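Hello,

Following up on my earlier ticket. Below are the two sequence lines again, exactly as submitted.
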Amino acid sequence: MTTKTLTVVRDLLASNKQAATAIRQELRSRGILGVNLLSSPGSGKTTLLEALADRFRDRYRMAVIEGDIETERDAERIRAKGVPARQITTGGACHLEARMIGKVLGDVPAEIDFLFVENVGNLVCPASYDLGEDLRLVLLSTPEGDDKPAKYPAAFLSADAFVVTKADLLPYLPFDPARATAEALAIKPALAVFTVSAVRGDGLDALTAYLVEALERLRSGRA
Amino acid sequence: MHELSLIASVFDVLEEQAREHGAIRVSRVVLRIGVMSGVVPDLLESAFEIYKKGTLAESARLEIIRVAVRVRCPDCGGESVREDSDFRCAACGSRRVEIVEGRELVVETIDLEA
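Thanks for your patience. The regenerated structure is below:
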């Protein structure tokens, strides 16, 4: 018997990256900005999307792909805002993969400006999977604590923007937005940072302006 | 907790390479796993042990090389290894660094028996 050591150097995420690249090209060719939302469960991803639906109404068209382990609840909340939503239930999987998005992309209306993907609530696994988005937002809600960026660095490292949510609760919590921001920026200095309250409306002007600017950049071919 | 699906991808590579090289067994697999890859080496090892049963890698040993975060600085031109979730340039403190290592999930080498 002979043994030989073979150098292969194969990326384990290669097939996901390939699927993601195809989705990104498809979305760009249709002039749609893909936005992937990452956070722990209960950080306010759906509530933020509901608030964005209200802000964008009559100005920009959006659709949402919802990732959850079970239930159609999030998609129902988004549809109640008059926004098309497609639910993916992973049946246990802790993150969305590009192929799952590819399968439902045909159900997404063609004439939209933004396609939001609400990932499975989890600050760990979704960080590794490119879904073909052009923008990734990582959310951290004030009750979770300002020490989380350094505890979940891969998620922050993979993101383009950091959104502190539930700012309306700041008076009642020890959360220090400056500390959370400093931690996040030590991990990823290029992060855009927003502090919002989706229920009260704080910070949503800045966040929507950022999204619209990214959309315009994509459409002018500078993405 | 997506380690099992990553191990499934490892086995896709093993089976393809064994077939291509006419091997009957895989005796060792070496992975390079970046500390910022989002996977846990212990869980990868457990998943590998579960997955290998009844495959051509049944008696294979898994080795994991942990890869630290290495940044390249466009301001001072230096490269440094970083820890503790602080990825600024170690030499000049610049924030404009590029991460050159530490996020990989790679099958590096495979030992094949023919």
